[in-house]
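Regression test case RT-17, inverse folding.

Input:
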């Protein structure tokens, strides 16, 4: 049997981790996978997470199974954090999933169950796992243009032109905030225009929300999401706690389904539970329980928000420092857009060859055609980085 297998195509983000680890050069710079790093290059456990974990170890009496939709306090807490009060809670079904990737996968399965003929549209560029998961599930998919590399801004006209091909019942994946890989985000007017269009044509959004709190703040980052979910009859949403709670390896996420009525939301939630059961039975508890504890304790919530906000500010400072260094180095405003981008990433806009040259000649690692993790930028090496970027001709 196993002889029929061929080596899988490498995921470019995962492959980069291996290349970086194997590089013996001192001073190598990792701008690859999206993990937050502090000034010492560490990815810290957030204070509120540590406090909740300590409490959990002391107080937890059993590790017996929870339900197939996971910890209900966690799901409700995440629902409120994301949707606020604009959407009637009864219209929102939700289930815990192993990370945001698990949520994307489970929602893909839900689409396949509900409307197997649906086509799913994703942005070009996007997180590589979006098209990979859709292909894996056998869903028909298609890319829409999103980004204008020349200006570093969203190409909304091109996006609308390509989405004109979507038919009633098709699904459009949108990044809730902090677009991965570009860092160029839809503004509220874009969200409003898309909402009107989707409502008129019966299109269902599937929002991937992996960076709430990393862009303009916890509430501003979901302004577009809330507008859309409140106005449309149906919205799917995949949420991740990897970044904003720093719970990467604990795999904490949730899949949400906003239905036209409370009854439909309940049936959809039941289906998410059934799909969990088919794939892994019960979602992993620990990290979700920690998030549930943080979100239901005022002091822990306040401390988590404060630390998240300082991480966000840190990334904004680094972002601007790189834009300034590139302005000095290239004597042009070509990279000023970096300061206007938001979130963990920016697309520098090189070719694969130039990105490889940065790796080979300068030990600087970035994904694809120049996606950089802002949190990985070297605080004291910004000028050297800008020189290297200019030297390879990006
Ligand atoms: C990234 O895009 O680097 C992160 O979302 C991590 C991942 O799983 O790819």
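Golden output:
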């Amino acid at each position: 049997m196993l002889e029929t297998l061929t080596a899988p195509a490498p995921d470019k983000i995962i492959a980069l981790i291996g290349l970086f680890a194997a590089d013996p050069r001192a001073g190598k710079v990792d701008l690859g996978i999206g993990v937050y790093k502090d000034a010492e290059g560490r990815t810290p456990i957030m204070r509120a997470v540590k406090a909740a974990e300590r409490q959990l170890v002391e107080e937890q009496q059993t590790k017996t199974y929870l339900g197939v939709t996971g910890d209900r306090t966690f799901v409700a807490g995440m629902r409120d954090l994301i949707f606020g009060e604009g959407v009637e809670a009864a219209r929102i079904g939700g289930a815990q999933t192993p990370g945001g990737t698990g949520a994307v996968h489970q929602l893909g399965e839900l689409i396949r169950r509900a409307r197997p003929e649906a086509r799913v549209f994703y942005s070009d560029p996007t997180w590589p796992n979006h098209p990979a998961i859709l292909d894996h599930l056998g869903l028909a998919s298609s890319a829409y243009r999103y980004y204008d590399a020349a200006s570093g801004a969203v190409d909304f006209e091109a996006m609308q032109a390509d989405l004109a091909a979507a038919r009633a019942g098709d699904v459009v994946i949108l990044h809730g905030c902090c677009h991965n890989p570009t860092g160029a985000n839809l503004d509220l007017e874009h969200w409003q225009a898309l909402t009107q269009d989707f409502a008129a044509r019966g299109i269902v959004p599937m929002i991937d929300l992996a960076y709430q709190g990393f862009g303009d703040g916890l509430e501003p980052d979901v302004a577009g999401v809330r507008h859309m979910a409140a106005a449309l009859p149906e919205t799917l949403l995949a949420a991740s706690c990897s970044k904003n709670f720093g719970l990467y390896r604990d795999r904490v996420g949730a899949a949400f389904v906003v239905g036209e009525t409370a009854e439909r939301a309940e049936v959809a939630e039941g289906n998410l539970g059934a799909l969990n059961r088919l794939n892994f039975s019960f979602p992993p508890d620990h990290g979700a329980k920690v998030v549930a504890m943080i979100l239901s304790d005022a002091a822990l919530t306040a401390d988590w928000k404060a630390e998240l906000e300082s991480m966000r500010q840190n990334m904004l400072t680094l972002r601007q420092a790189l834009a300034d260094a590139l302005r000095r180095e290239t004597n042009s405003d070509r990279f000023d857009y970096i300061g206007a981008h938001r979130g963990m990433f920016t697309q520098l806009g090189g070719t694969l060859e130039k990105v490889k040259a940065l790796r080979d000649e300068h030990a600087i690692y970035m994904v694809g055609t120049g996606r950089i993790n802002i949190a990985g930028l070297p605080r004291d090496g910004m000028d050297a980085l800008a020189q290297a970027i200019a030297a390879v001709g990006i």
